[in-house]
Design brief:
The protein is built from nine helices and seven strands, in the order H-H-H-E-H-E-H-E-E-H-E-H-E-H-H-E. It has 270 residues and is of the alpha/beta class. The chain has one domain: Rossmann fold (3-Layer(aba) Sandwich), CATH 3.40.50. Helix 6 links the parallel strand 4 and strand 5. Helix 3 crosses helix 9 and helix 8 runs antiparallel to helix 9. The longest helix has 24 residues. It is globular, with a radius of gyration of 18 Å. About 4% of the residues have low confidence.
Length: 270
């Protein structure tokens, strides 16, 4: 299943005006369970971190996480990097329109080559590592780019059915993924190999989250891939489906899961 064309079509609709872009961000915040988990982790990090901060949004995409980070403190500076120049240009244009370009900037970067020595207090990597083959090099670059005491926050599919894979012969629901998901021990070992001494890994998308993802993301994507006419039907679909997804998401972020199709990983530089 090609996910990028769907994102591109949605972006074309919501990028026409700043208020539409903000509405798009809000919709993503509501629909994407990983956003719930990431925001929870950022809020917790923020409580233990005082003062100015420099943040790297590694794989910034549409810029929704950079936008959220920019609202946390006027003293935070955010750099978003991505391999898609059109998204970089689009994000720089939007943040200039909303008068945040002095604190939030975007640039092209390949994460296998990007490194800024001891530059960031927080590095955010949301649904990026499953797209990169040479992940150990990226983890080493992240480690080098963090300040002492800095944290790397990762959201990625797990090998417990991540990317909607079932069984040994299964394939990722998202064609752009180079791996179907990480084994939790594999992830911790690779991060420690890169230099991180303290790593905390937890499953996300447990039973409630898996059901919510199918309702809020998988089925709508399948419909949109079948025909663009489903753009008309989607609002009515979500009126029925979203209340169920909302409560499922709430249960997912407030439970500790023995297994799940996603991973939330925190790694610290000593």
């Amino acid at each position: 299943m090609k996910y990028d064309p769907i994102k591109k079509n949605l972006g074309a609709v919501f990028n026409k005006r700043p208020f539409l872009r903000k509405l798009f961000y809000r919709l993503l915040d509501l629909l994407l369970l990983r956003t719930w988990h990431i925001k929870k982790a950022i809020r917790k990090w923020k409580k233990n971190y005082k003062g100015k901060a420099t943040v790297l949004d590694a794989g910034s995409g549409f810029g929704q996480y950079s936008y959220y980070l920019s609202k946390q403190s006027k003293f935070w500076k955010i750099l978003g990097v991505d391999v898609k120049q059109e998204q970089i240009d689009d994000c720089n244009r939007f943040f200039k329109q909303i008068n945040k370009s002095e604190r939030v900037q975007f640039e092209y970067a390949d994460l296998t080559q990007f490194k800024k020595e001891s530059a960031f207090d927080l590095i955010l990597s949301v649904d990026v590592m499953e797209h990169i083959e040479d992940d150990v090099t990226v983890f080493r670059n992240f480690y080098a780019s963090l300040k002492t005491g800095g944290m790397l926050l990762i959201s990625t599919p797990s090998d417990q059915g991540g990317s909607d894979v079932h069984g040994d012969e299964g394939h990722s629901f998202i064609d752009e993924h180079v791996r179907d998901g990480y084994n939790i021990n594999e992830m911790e070992e690779k991060l420690k190999k890169a230099g991180f001494s303290k790593v905390e890994s937890n499953y996300s998308y447990g039973t409630p989250g898996k059901i919510s993802w199918k309702l809020s993301m998988k089925y709508p994507i399948l419909m949109l891939n079948a025909s663009k006419l489903f753009f008309i039907i989607l609002p009515f679909y979500y009126i029925l489906a979203y209340p169920i997804s909302f409560f499922l998401n709430y249960f997912d972020i407030n439970q500790k899961h023995q297994t799940g199709t996603g991973l939330i990983v925190k790694a610290y530089k000593p």
